[in-house]
Amino acid sequence: MDIVKEEPGINVGALASAFDVSRIAVMKHLAVLEEASLIVSEKDGRSRKLYFNAAPIQMIHDRWTTEYSAYWAGQITRIKYLAEAREEKTNQNSKRGIKNER
């Protein structure tokens, strides 16, 4: 997919020549990628132009990072509040002359 991403509109023959497998094998892989909507192909005379479609990957990324980002943002906020509370307690104790307890 990197080649298709870097060379939008590359034809199947040019892509196949970059690999040490048959053109048929490359076409089978492309069929899987096309079925997953990661590759879009466009007929151009007797050849096919290939284009990378980042939308499905972006959708998966957004779905996973949004869910986990919310969780970890909450955890970081919790740690921040605990650290601030501990610092405030330490400051109050030091003003009173009480030793710092851990």
Question: What is the terminal-to-terminal distance?
Answer: 54 Å
CATH superfamily of the largest domain: Winged helix-like DNA-binding domain superfamily/Winged helix DNA-binding domain
Count of individual helical segments: 4
**What is the helix fraction of residues, given as a range?**
55-70%
| Gyration radius over CA | 28 Å
Q: Estimate the strand proportion.
A: 5-15%
Can you describe what's shown?
The protein is an alpha+beta fold. It has two domains: 52 residues, Orthogonal Bundle (Arc Repressor Mutant, subunit A); 49 residues. The protein contains four helices and three strands; from the N terminus they run αβααββα. A three-stranded antiparallel sheet has the order 1-3-2. It is rod-shaped, with a radius of gyration of 28 Å.
In short:
64% of the residues lie in helices and 14% in strands. With 102 residues, it is an alpha+beta fold.
What order do the helices and strands come in, and which of them pair?
Blueprint: H1 2-6, E1 10-11, H2 12-16, H3 23-35, E2 39-44, E3 47-52, H4 55-96
Antiparallel strand pairs: 1-3, 2-3
